[in-house]
Amino acid sequence: MRAELATEWDEAALPPTEEDVNSSEQSVIRHGMPEVYYDAGRKEFLMQDARGVWLWMTISQFSRKCRLFGISNTKISGCCHSAFDAFADDIQHQRAVDFAGAIAGFKPGLLIEGGMRFLVTKGPDLIEPKKGEWPTLEEVFRAVLGDEDFDQIFYWHAWLKMAFEALAAGRRKPGQAMILVGPAECGKSLLQDIITAILGGREGKPYKFMTDATRFNSNLAGTEHLRIGDENPHTNLIARRNFGAQLKNLTVEESHQVEAKYRDALTLRPFWRLSISLNDEPENLMVLPPLDEHIMDKMIILKCRRREMPMPTATLEQRDAFWKRLESELPAYLEWLSGLTIPSHLVSQRFGVQAFLHPAIKSELLNFEPPMMLLDLIDAHIFGPNEKFIEMTAAEIQTELTSETSACRFEARRLLPRPTTCGRYLSSLVGLSPRVKNARTSDRRAYRITRRPDDG
Q1: Do residues 172 and 166 make contact, with C-beta atoms less than 8 angstroms apart?
Q2: How far apart, in whole angstroms, are the C-alpha atoms of residue 269 and residue 216?
Q3: What is the pLDDT of residues 41-51, one digit of tens each?
Q4: If I label 159, which of 87, 151, 378, 434 is the partner at 20 to 30 A Cα–Cα?
Q5: Regarding the domain delimited by 369-455, which CATH topology (the fold level of the hierarchy) does it fall under?
Q6: What's the CATH number for 135-364?
């Protein structure tokens, strides 16, 4: 009896023919088995169950499963191997993959990129847009994001439109970090829940990775929505700069290194969108990276307010009913988004829509920043009574502020601990404040700083 035709456990099955092992895929099909692959990283076999869910199996577990399909693990008379040995070896050599698991933005199936094979085991659960009404969602957006002076709801719609359309089309398009700032219990987390639902229902927590608290980020590989909310924030400057570097990377780069414990790092192309919700107290805002011209175009910062929601949410039953209502309106909302037009003056070639930083939040953030603190010291301690502007190098400014005769020397020394710090802050101020301009000459790298208008 040939091994592939055995209908019962046949301990005396003959070895596979040359045809049997010539094509691993046909071998699997002939045995009537589900899809089988070998995860080279985990050194385990993969097989789909009756629901289509991928299961990882050790070689002993796989051997037991193969016996159910008539593939014996008993050595064949006169040979050193069994039918199972030949079959398993064939799978390991012909159907090995470098990575198996969910990859954000990819549908299930075998993916070959850059000479590597990836088995995507699960894709996002995308909502199908459908014509209809979405009055409850509209009320929520107006309640949380409504602003008398700025149409910031437009940026919310445009950001979601760009994200959903790229994800649904299977394209990789950069997207700014969506940052929601407001008082506690104003609906920031609800907006993040809506983002998760629209982007396929999967979310991950990237904060530890973004602040270098861990280098392992494999838990993010299969989540389209990277969500930061109720974290234990780090407000020191080093952590904020690390956070800013990762924010730039996550919002702009297409390829990312993904690493798990005890595994080699892999380069993947996940579809990621980052959202951050923050209470509006200063200590929470200081989680964000220092603002400069290289980071501001990679963020959309919206100011949230606490207003009454369109449905009661005091009890678990009420919250559940409220969320079900919002979920039911998402198909209609997405259909409406498909027709949203972004005005030409707000189009970004990189992101689809330009960045927006609510002026009130931006002003508050700038007031916390070391470069703005430096500008305050310059205003208070360098300008003469009648000077409308000064032109000085970074070294000259640092020397004057930190010298033994300076009234602010202790504060300045804390702010400027290294000789290069002042120059770095002044370079940032060129992009942050219209009062600071480069005034370079062939032999002198100076800065022209105009007196603050309210100083006379």
Answers
A1: yes
A2: 16
A3: 899 999 998 88
A4: 434
A5: Arc Repressor Mutant, subunit A (1.10.10)
A6: 3.40.50
